């Protein structure tokens, strides 16, 4: 068995083996919890379906760490997000066991570095392949591991010079922000009356906002726009200078053009609460509101 062990050791040292193994174990634990006969579990519903989806995703992420070691950063970040979300979306992350295994595996996968060639026992150490084909597969990981993940709407041209944003972006608040097909399209500059403004470009298929409030200043008057609900659909694009909210109502984050969210694709069941943003522009094919109000004050 000496030669097979040497071959296995050589293969294991060219990829984040233990990180991938922990992710597979964590995903398997999340799968087994909602399917077990324990009477203390929540009945199989949205939480159970989310546990199955996240469990399969973590298992797929562990396999990707083994097969595509050069993409370990991207895979590990996606797996870490799913592991943290499992606490709220499943049975407390498989009673914490699956969540902890997923977080540990993600950390080990992210921190892995290839073993230098001179440190191996044999000079014939297989090098990590960095081909364009496998890189493309790594980019498609979220689509492959979660059927519900989408890449958002096709890229659209940003506002041209005919659309000038206000020099001071209006402030927007909402108690609940639920996007569909939410992706980060990058950072760009849009024209304003006082020069270019650096913004984050967020695209999505649709979005629902509850208790929507927008405040802006037109000259010396402050304008306030409010709505009980605001639904955007079609090719929705937001141009923001700041975005702050609590992911799943638990993890509060702040994003700016200099501090972007990772990963660029967000699972479809994610929502944010207590959102506040600085919104330079917004475009949408259709906007439907309920309880619309408009106020002006000095």
Describe the structure.
By secondary structure, the protein is an alpha+beta fold. The protein contains 8 helices and 8 strands. It has helices at 2-12, 17-35, 46-67, 72-89, 92-95, 97-111, 132-139, 141-145; strands at residues 171-180, 183-192, 195-218, 221-247, 251-255, 272-283, 286-290, 293-297. A hairpin with a 3-residue loop joins strand 4 and strand 5 (251-255). 34% of the residues are buried. Mean pLDDT is 75; it is low at 38-44 and 119-161.
- Count the helices. How many? 8
The first-to-last residue Cα distance is: 84 Å
Task: Look at the structure and give the mean pLDDT.
Answer: 75
% residues in beta strands: 25-35%
Global outline:
elongated
The biggest beta sheet is recorded as: 8 strands, antiparallel
H/E series: HHHHHHHHEEEEEEEE
> Based on DSSP secondary structure assignment, what is the total number of beta strands?
8
Rg on CA atoms, Å: 23 Å
Enumerate the spans where pLDDT stays under 50 for 5 or more consecutive residues: 38-44, 119-161
The computed structural class is alpha+beta
Helical content stands at 25-40%
List keywords for this structure.
298 residues, alpha+beta, eight-stranded antiparallel sheet, elongated
Please outline the helices and strands.
Layout (H helix, E strand, L loop, with lengths): L1 H11 L4 H19 L10 H22 L4 H18 L2 H4 L1 H15 L20 H8 L1 H5 L25 E10 L2 E10 L2 E24 L2 E27 L3 E5 L16 E12 L2 E5 L2 E5 L1
Antiparallel strand pairs: 1-3, 1-6, 2-3, 3-4, 4-5, 4-6, 4-7, 4-8
Helix pairs in contact: 2-3, 2-6, 3-4, 3-6, 4-6
């Amino acid at each position: 068995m000496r030669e097979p062990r040497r071959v296995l050791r050589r293969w294991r040292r060219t990829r984040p083996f233990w990180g991938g193994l922990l992710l597979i174990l964590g995903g398997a634990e999340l799968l087994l919890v909602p399917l077990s006969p324990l009477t203390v579990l929540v009945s199989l519903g949205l939480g159970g379906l989310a546990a199955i989806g996240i469990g399969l995703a973590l298992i797929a992420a562990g396999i990707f760490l083994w097969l595509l070691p050069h993409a370990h950063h991207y895979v590990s970040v996606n797996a870490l997000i799913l592991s943290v979300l499992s606490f709220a979306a499943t049975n407390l992350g498989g009673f914490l066991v699956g969540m902890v295994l997923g977080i540990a595996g993600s950390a080990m996968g992210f921190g892995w570095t290839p073993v230098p060639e001179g440190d191996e026992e044999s000079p014939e150490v297989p090098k990590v392949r960095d081909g364009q084909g496998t890189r493309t597969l790594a980019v498609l990981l979220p689509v492959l591991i979660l059927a519900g993940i989408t890449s958002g709407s096709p890229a659209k041209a940003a506002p041209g010079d005919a659309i000038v944003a206000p020099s001071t972006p209006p402030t927007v608040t909402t108690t609940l922000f639920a996007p569909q097909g939410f992706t980060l399209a990058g950072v760009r500059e849009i024209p304003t009356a006082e020069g270019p403004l650096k913004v984050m470009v967020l695209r999505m298929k649709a979005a629902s906002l509850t208790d929507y409030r927008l405040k802006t200043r037109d000259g010396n008057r402050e304008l306030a726009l409010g709505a009980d609900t605001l639904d955007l659909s079609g090719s929705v694009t937001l141009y923001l200078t700041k975005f702050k909210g609590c992911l799943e109502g638990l993890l509060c984050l702040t994003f700016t053009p200099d501090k972007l969210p990772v990963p660029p694709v967000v699972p479809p069941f994610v929502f944010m609460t207590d959102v506040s943003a600085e919104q330079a522009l917004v475009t949408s094919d259709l906007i439907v509101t309920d309880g619309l109000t408009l106020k002006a004050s000095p």
